[in-house]
Design goal:
Blueprint lengths: L1 E5 L8 H19 L15 H6 L3 E9 L2 E9 L7 H5 L7 H22 L1 H22 L11 H14 L4 E8 L2 E8 H18 L10 H17 L21
Antiparallel strand pairs: 1-4, 2-3, 4-5
Length: 254
Amino acid sequence: MIPLADDNPSRSTPYIVYGLIVANIIIYAIDRIHAMGPIGSLWNWSLVPEYLMFGHPVTKVFPVVYQGMARQMQVTYTGLNPRWLTVLTSMFMHGGLLHIGGNMLYLWIFGNNIEDALGHVKFFIFYLVCGVAAAMSHVLINVHSETPLVGASGAIAGVLGAYLYLFPRNTVRTLVFLGFFWTFVDIPAMIVLGAWFVIQLTNIAGSGGTLGGGVAYWAHVGGFVSGIIIILLLGGRKSLQRGRRYNHRPYTWE
């Protein structure tokens, strides 16, 4: 089930959403263009819980193929100074095309309405705070982990939480796979995003509460919950003030 669009047109231009998407793409390109095998050039921008909490440099060994031969590459992670900067920089890094593609798709679909509701400056702060809350949710559960954390998923999860609270009945055009077949279905946001959140909780349970398959599910949950809490602190649905009315419109597919 992949969301493709919603029926909630924004009444203002989402400059921050556009800027975040461009920034993430540029940073990903820089990271991969100068990559050393599996290691991106911005390796020290990632967040390593062990380093963040205790300041210990971390040495990782990665298998690489060089001139047709399998070798081991040892790389020392030294982070940034001050260490807390990696909480922010890691939010703009991604591990692959599917990772950044999925994150930017969700930000594109759901971010514009939250920016429209909060305003540009508040939305940017909201996004960063959700990202920090998500990262710290992961760190506190995996204090001694030496696995780098990267991705905007936590911050975007906060956007999803806020969207679920503000627009639960809006419909989302979703690509649904049925075995070898696929179709487009309009599904209420409360089902699409609610199912996404339940999947994160299920994966946490299946992974024993830590990292599951290299995915930081606790960061997703922490970001999602923080998004709901923050939007409530900002006035909940009163953030849709100033006479805004969201007029639903049908999809046009060509």
